[in-house]
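URGENT: need a sanity check before tomorrow's submission.

F., can you look over the Undecaprenyl-phosphate glucose phosphotransferase record below? I want to be sure the sequence and structure line up before it goes out.
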Amino acid sequence: MNRFRHYYSFNRVLLLVLDVTLIATAFHFSNIIRYGTTDLQQEYNIFFLLFALVWWIVSGFSNFMFRIDGFFPIDRRLSNLINAFIMHAFILACCIVMFKLDELSRLLLLYTYLSTALLIGMSRLVLMLVYRYVTKSDVAHTRYVIVGTGPAALALQQTLNANDDLGTKFMGFFDDNADKLSPYNSKLKGGVDDLKEYCLQHSIDEIYYTLPLNNRAQIDELTEFADDNFVYFRIVPDFSAIVQRDVNMYFYHNIPMISVRREPLEIASNRVMKRLFDVAFSLAVILLIFPVVLPIIALLIKLESKGPVFFKQLRPGKKNRLFVCYKFRTMRVNMQTELQATKNDPRITRIGAFLRKTSLDELPQFFNVLFGDMSVVGPRPNLVSQLDHYSKLISKYKMRHFVTPGITGYAQVSGYRGETKELRLMEKRIEYDVRYMENWSFMMDMKIIFLTVWNMVKGEKNAF
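Structure tokens as predicted:
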């Protein structure tokens, strides 16, 4: 529904302006409670700008956090809002420590956070209720009908109704061969011959045509009628017989093409952006963090067990090409390197357990990122033995190798990390890897990196 893209952009800007206004209100309200005046001191004016800026940054981490339509259920929107406040508080706390803003009143910050959360939460609820009232009322300014009652027509109506787009109203189906026993029969307004008169009488704005495309005369007739009466005529081809999943349609010049899956990293500019970030991020870690932690970790590894500091192992990368993956050694030297680590694994050393728990054992893989064998974010590179085993059991397993493997991934920050005793655990991991491939964005990578750091700080129960 590209015609609503401008609405979503405007909606986002409008709500962001509203949020900043509510944050300013919360600051003044909190200042009244704390100091008895609405006049903010100079340091709080600066802090307000920092508070609002961090909120703007955090908004990019929560998909559609600034949408009030029905695309996401209310529990998902509430979860996004709560996650946004948690992330905002974490980043703001880091800024306070980094910039040494010790003079700020902790009590005022508490009042500000509580009032901000209350105001923004209430504004979302009110706007959502107003939105639902408008979309369900007769003031909806875009009325549409669907020609056909087949699978494509029913799926289209359900999708448009679920998305609940602003200012739209479904007026009915039109079909000459409708199933009399269909549960949607009550919404049938007549045959195709009745369509024109109905459109004129009820000021229909859009016609969606979902019948087979072999009736050229009928399509031409309805197209001409729509053009003459300022009605948008849209053809919705039914591919359900040949494609059993969501597809993406695009045009190469004037030739329509269908892609059976959405792959943002097929676009060269996206790959370049991701690669530039990988190089910059890996260089920063190698130059700033690695020199500090390497001597300490190397000494601890050597003191506890004999063997090299680094562990090298062949792993399958993009398009199953093998590469040498680097890690800090976390186990005693053994001949079972293709055996996945388990809970209380006797091969793991004490320092190794700590490194695994905090993910510090993965630090050398930033050299893999710099060399181009890995990315900062992507599907985790599994063992070669796992590739041979799971590719025979899980149909989508090999799909994850369409992209460059990563140090961290969507599956890992979603709780699917560690041992995979049961097949369903690996299936869920693959599901999240494929979901990452099909929904990649730069902000999604940033969110995964943030959650990875957060998990490192709090520790992961599945990391062993």
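My own read: The chain has a mean pLDDT of 81. The chain is about 50% helix and 10% strand. If you see anything odd, call me.
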